[in-house]
Specification:
CATH topology of the largest domain: Rossmann fold
CATH class of the largest domain: Alpha Beta
Strand order of the largest sheet: 1-2-10-7-8-9
Distance between the termini: 32 Å
Structural class: alpha/beta
Number of helices: 14
Number of domains: 2
Radius of gyration: 18 Å
CATH architecture of the largest domain: 3-Layer(aba) Sandwich
Helix content: 40-55%
Length: 339
Amino acid sequence: MTGAPDIRQIEDAARRLAPVLRKTWLFESERLNTHIGGRLLVKAETLQPTGSFKIRGAWNRISRLSPGELSRGVFALSSGNHGLAVAWAARQAGARRIVILMPVDAPRTKIEQTRAFGAEIIAYDRRTADRNALVAQWRNDQGLIYIPAFDDAEIIAGAATVAYETVQEAAASDIAIDLFTAPCSGGGLIAGSALALRSLSPKTEIWGVEPEAYDDTARSLSAGERVAVSASGKTICDALLSLTPGELTFTINRKSLSGIVRASDDDARVGMKAAFEEFGLVAEPSGALALGAILTGRMDVQGRTFAVVLSGRNVDLDLYRREIADTALVDPSPARLAG
């Protein structure tokens, strides 16, 4: 598949995923609705087998590999969630070899879980490594099949099924979604969601949420072209550290997004705490960033229905305890809109 996937390819991905995914429903809290003055629906991708939405793109891509390609093996670059998903999907599909290149500072739990799925872990320094050179080396020297994290049509089609399901679930309860939002890094989840919503719910606004220190998509949209951010930024959102948007994802997002919200680590902490207190769900900082941005008033939700993706749960226990210990909901008024 080349170019942006269309709704038929998204529907095909949904059919392919149905036998392997857990059905995740939309969570709702009366307290949070009162807090924001609107209606909030939470799509809990934290309940997927590998703890994040990444399993969708990985399975849609890897399940299509030929026996010959699986006999060569696969590899990916990932700080954790994509690597976990690739390792799981590749093992399910019967790949001969699974190699995941992970940053040396990746969370311990993500490294351990990825290894437990049978992957070889190769560490690299995300601040100094040439990622394109790493990909070329492992593709050319080792002969492995590269599974991109986001800039791939089949990965995007898989990610698009998050919004595809969300709209269907809401419609089953006669709920129209005014705004849809999700965390944004390389842009695959929000790009795929935008494509699904364009066909199924064209009036829905689509917003991505990025860490303030890694706002590459926001800057790129403002510049009208892909730009890079520095790798020196600090954030607890380890899964949202992309330095530049993907070529395909940016092409989709510049045409489809209503905008990008820049959010803080404190916003992520609020999202983590709310997910736990209201729904009993564990979320990592990156996975909770979009939820936190809504709850702290970075988006105007008064009187509207919002769908937000809780995109991942894989977090070291000590960090999780520390980050939510002294966090509480804050008054979201007045709304702080970010373009």
